[in-house]
Amino acid sequence: MKTDLTDTTSSKINKALVLGRRAIGTPAVGMVLTLVIVTDEENAYDALKAANEASREHPSRTLVVIKRVSRSPRDRAKARLDAEVRLGADASTGETVVLRLYGEVVDHAQSVVLPLLLPDAPVVVWWPVNAPSDPANDPLGALAQRRVTDTYSAEQPIQELTARADAYTPGDTDLSWTRITPWRSMLAAALDQVVCEVTSAEVEGEEFNPSVELLAMWLADRLKVPVRRSKSAGPGLTSVRMETSSGPIVLDRPDGSLATLSIQGQPDRGVALKRRDTAELIAEELRRLDPDDTYATALRFGLERLDEEAATTAPETVVETVVEAEVEAVVETVPAAKPAAKKAPAKKAAK
After folding, report:
1. Cα 287 to Cα 124, 183, 222, 284, distances in angstroms
2. What's this model's pTM, rounded to 2 decimal places?
3. Cys bridge to 282: 21, 54, 123, 257, which one at CB 3.0-4.6 A?
4. Which residue in 200, 245, 202, 246 sits closest to 223, CA to CA?
5. Which of 177, 171, 175, 141 is closest to 291 using CA atoms?
6. For residue 121, is it within any domain?
7. Is the domain of 130 the same as that of 197?
8. What is the DSSP pairing of strand 172-174 with strand 2-5?
């Protein structure tokens, strides 16, 4: 069942939800949370499709907030809220409300969303693209217990990862972190099979891939060993190699689907390690609504490492600058050498 509302209000949307549930005979109970998706028109379809698939495991009320920013000053001055209410087969196992905000309402999205939240149910806010620099202090993020971003969708993923570390608040998480859950589980299981001491590690993957960086941060934080980051053609993460006192442990996935686990003294084993789609990632994040301390520790470790690198490189830069300045000063104070006097041409010998 689908109901379109033009130039509406939150109270009219709530009324449409009640009438729709009565029409299809579906009660409101059974939904475990409210999922708020903040996106643009271009990415709304894919995000909503992933949320509907995840709702089979987590029945929820899904609110899709699409901020329509107009270039015309006249249109920007006119505030309007359009809504599309979906229930039953059109909303998978929950309820879906697509909200399109125009004009001044764009700056007050939290006022529209707040009356539509399920009572006494947790709230999760997900930004598939264009996440705020500080999700916890965002007006919509302040309504949620969990805030999900995706640094992989940013134009500069590594810089975005640093911003996430600077602004981290308990409850923040990243789908780039969720993508490496199978890798972390497999590596931990591999270390449980042998008694050894890890001396170093190497993580190989695509350049500018935040999941590769997060896995390297996690290994360095947990194992307290140097971790080398190397580049490959992908897709995504391709290999992890750990040097241990009992020999190397290698987890290699060249095709993005099937990986090979190699442990010294044991036969190689093939393991399923396919790249998961967005629906599976969102479903995993909705399974737990408490703060992810492991993610926070890995982020904090990575930020501290970046600060240490900056501190070690800064003095060298300062020294080079000072030396260059001194050289320039000396050059300016030394008078220019006078040109050598031209020698008079020698007289030809008399014949």
Report:
1. 11, 19, 24, 5
2. 0.81
3. 54
4. 200
5. 171
6. yes
7. no
8. unpaired
